[in-house]
Amino acid sequence: MEALRKKIPLTLPQNTVKIIRIIAALLLLALVIVRAIDVAAESQFGADTWLRLSVSGLIIGGMYALIAIGYTLVYGILFMINFAHGEVMMIGTFGGYFVFEAFNAIQVTAADGSQMSFLNANPVIAVFLAFLAGMTIAALSGYFLEKIAYRPLRGAPRLVPLISAIGASIFLQNAGQLLFGPQRRQYINPVVLDRGIGWHVELAGSTVVLTYTGIFSLVLSAILMVGLYVLVQRTKLGRAMRAVAQDKKTAALMGINVDQIISRTFVISGALAGAAGVMWGIHNGLFNYFVGFLPGIKAFTAAVLGGIGNIPGAMLGGMFLGIVESLGPAVLGIDFQLKDVIAFSILILVLIFRPSGILGEALSEEKV
Amino acid sequence: MMLEVENLNVHYGAIHALKGVTFHLQEGEIVALIGANGAGKSTTLNTISRLNKPTAGDIRYRGASIVETPPQDIVTKGIVQVPEGRRIFPKMSVVENLEMGAYIFSDRQRIEADIEMVFGKFPRLRERRKQLGGTLSGGEQQMLAIARGLMARPQLLLLDEPSMGLAPIIVEQIFDIIREINQQGTSILLVEQNAQMALSIADRGYVFETGKIVLEGDAGDLLEDPMVKEAYLGGG
Which residue of A166, A184, A359, B218 could cross-link A307, Cys pair, CB 3.0 to 4.6 Å? Predict the structure, then answer.
């Protein structure tokens, strides 16, 4: 009996697991390709639809990327997933909303003597202040989130701050609901940034509208991402952030105030999520206290997809996820409401087949 | 007196790591702390750098207590540690590592000049200036670690096991440089398992055993001490 038991391996050898995994990946890939060819043969969609879907994927991808950077920055430094990060974005959305509301209520006399709202008289100032308010209040909530929910748990086992993060997420959602009510609100944009208007592109006998709100969001996301990259690579604060991410003890020996750098990382992450939140409001219009939940999880997926802890990875992952979930349903010929299924299938597949993500390196023991 | 450590006690949870350690260092000295692995030498350095909090006792630097000073301010006061195992930032270039060493300063010109100064001491680092820290050899990493420490312009340099894992010829070079740094006016507190090497450049030494100092004296006397010879210098 003893001898028999010894002969049965309890786990499959490493190589066998690897081979099974590769075969499974190839089978899945083949399935997707066959289905895509099948659908393409029917040529249900024209070039105009593909352009429309690609552009909307890029726009949403830019927002995912901004939020994903926050997950990745915090993970890089604390090795924890800040599950309340989506709620930080929600707070940013509200911040921008109230600025637009306030400016819409103020009446001013225009140059030609007519009465109009401050919002429409000075759209540039209004948009600037909306972003400033959204980013500031989101940055502040990131700062306090770390101070209240995570700092007291520094040094606790890894699972503990994670639970705290989920708790903070639920708390912030409910606080949002209590403060602002459960009803959906609508962003009132300045007239020049009205949703739906934009440049018209003629393609395949049909008109594709490149909305001003969308292009504006995309350009602003790109600017913010470049800005962040320069901050991390070139500035003293960025160097300190990288040092703390690589080795906290040694960073402290260099005279870096580690707690302060962690705080600032949350502030930067919060500001980027806040910017994404205001963009979300301006581009999509409707939102309520729950607005941060789905983008939050999607951006988390994007960060994992790009390689968590890796900043260019988060940017790439965000853009990639935006495009895939936008084009995916059309490519696979399934209902467009199933785009979330595609996004989360990607999360599962990445976790199974390449947990370190596209640009991530093999995780060291310490970081797993 | 530059550094006075008095009745220092440190606990890691239930483990009593330092049991009343008392020693001192005069301006300009090299003082060696020697002893076996786990005797409390590194704990002593980390407590001076304030990475650990002592449970009892006092550390005075130029007469003022520093046990309540946060780690970043210890560095600003001029006490700089080169940690055990070198701890180079692996994903930063040699120059970036050096710039991290000068984190407490913001005068660009002065930092550039200091980088030139340490390149003068360690010409190998100049050749590898763009290379990532993680790709350097062990000896080069130790040179970079010491160079990075010098970038903070230390008055008191805490060196933790600079000979660890290095070939004897490299160890000689490193110790020559340590002596040179000392001659240029930096006091040095040196933690070493290589007692022979450490005592050969030190003025005085303290022998640690299980969290306590069991022997102290001039480096020359310690080298001749039968107990030290027996325990740390590979027999008589």
Answer: A359
